[in-house]
Structures are given as structure tokens and as C-alpha cells.
Design a protein that fits this description.
Blueprint lengths: L10 E7 L3 E7 L10 E11 L4 E10 L5 E8 L4 E4 L2 E4 L7 E4 L6 E8 L3 H7 L2 E10 L4 E9 L1
Antiparallel strand pairs: 1-2, 2-3, 3-4, 4-11, 5-10, 6-7, 7-8, 8-11, 9-10
């Protein structure tokens, strides 16, 4: 889990934007405690304006082997695995949102998270869906891409 406090802030943060894309890059390694065994975890979030897509690229290196890495996504939509390597999130109106991921590296599972704060029901509904993309015995160095499209 990420830790709280200034000492756990991301580093090497950069941003750029133009008519075709907006991109945020940061190293998340310092956001986690030493037990995470991260040498670096570079994340790039990229909005491709022309393709109406978002990419999340995670490039990491571990200092030693670990048992599991879990990437967590939260959504107010229901979600299901349409095919290995692709999640589908049906929308109330319009085309569904699709999340493509490495189906060989990750096992996807969904959890329902009830919203207990009444003030949040108006914005988010009665529940959220937590999507867990889990990589068991991940390699010590890897680069993964999530591509979100409609």
C-alpha cells in the first residue's frame, strides 16, 4: 500500500500537453514503504486526444522478487472480463468502456465496495467496483500498459 506523508511523495514528475496528447510522468517508488522492494516505478498517464484513449504505462524494477503485484482500478460501473486481457464496463448511455491489459501477466477480479456515506450516493450511487489486476510472481523488471477506450 502507498504510504502517507511528504516523504512518500512521487518524484521526477513531469507534464506536457499539446493538441494531440497530454502526458503526466512520475516515479512512484518513494510512495511505497521499503517492504515493497521497488528500485523504481515509473508511471506514465497519457491522454491521446485523437484516438479518445487513455494509456497507463507502468515501468518498474524490483530490488528482489516478491509474491504479487496488484494494480487497482475503481469505477462506479459494473465490470466484467469480456475476454482474457480485456475488461468491459457497460455505460448507462453510449458505448461501453474497454480496458485492455496483459492477460498473460494479470488475473482480473472484481469486488463490490458499498458506499456507506449518504452524501456520496448522489455522485457515485450505492456501490463502486474495485478491479484488481493481480500479477503472481511478477518479473523483477517489467513494463505493462493499460489502454482505456470507448
Amino acid at each position: 500500500m502507498q504510504s502517507v506523508g511528504q516523504q512518500f511523495a512521487a518524484s521526477d514528475v513531469s507534464y506536457r500537453a499539446d493538441d494531440s496528447a497530454a502526458e503526466l510522468r512520475l516515479d512512484l517508488a518513494k510512495a511505497y514503504p521499503p517492504e515493497a522492494r521497488l528500485a523504481f516505478w515509473n508511471r506514465t498517464l497519457r491522454l491521446d486526444r485523437k484516438r479518445n484513449a487513455v494509456e497507463v504505462v507502468d515501468d518498474y524494477r524490483l530490488t528482489q522478487a516478491i509474491k504479487i503485484i496488484t494494480l487497482t482500478l475503481m469505477t462506479p460501473c459494473a465490470a466484467y472480463v469480456s475476454t482474457p486481457g480485456e475488461l468491459t464496463l457497460p455505460m448507462r448511455s453510449g458505448a461501453p468502456v474497454r480496458v485492455a491489459y496483459d492477460g498473460c501477466a494479470f488475473h482480473a477480479k472484481m469486488e463490490e465496495v458499498p458506499i456507506e456515506d449518504e452524501r456520496l450516493h448522489h455522485s457515485w450511487g450505492q456501490r463502486l467496483t474495485r478491479i484488481l489486476l493481480q500479477a503472481a510472481a511478477p518479473p523483477r523488471r517489467a513494463k505493462w500498459t493499460l489502454r482505456i477506450t470507448q
